Model the fold of this input.
Amino acid sequence: MVVATKYLNFDTKGDTDIVDITDDVAMAVKDSGIDNGVVTVFAPGSTMAVTTLEYEPGLIFDLKQALERIAPQGIVYQHNERWHDGNGHSHVRASLLGQSETFPIIDGNIALGTWQQIICIDLDNRPRSRKLIVQIVGE
Done:
């Protein structure tokens, strides 16, 4: 069994910035030399999320609108009352979406559906420099 850990670094715009990281994760898997196993993508931080979707403009818009309906920015959050940083909605959204996803690796490829991409979402209310951890386990 082999474990390889890679890091993806990038800047985001904040405010529900959705970034397609599929190619970056696939390259990390390829560079690991692992043909069969799993890859986990983890976002350290409480205002970032990792999930999958069909990365196309209509669905990106729809997801942003859904998140606004579920955890709107313009309501009172106790987090904001305590810290006065205005990102209570960001923490709630990240908690609902989750900070990691795990995918099977089969014959050196991530097992994704035809229209499925791996995305990270910066839910904070300001631009950030972010780092994701990509850990590949297998043989």
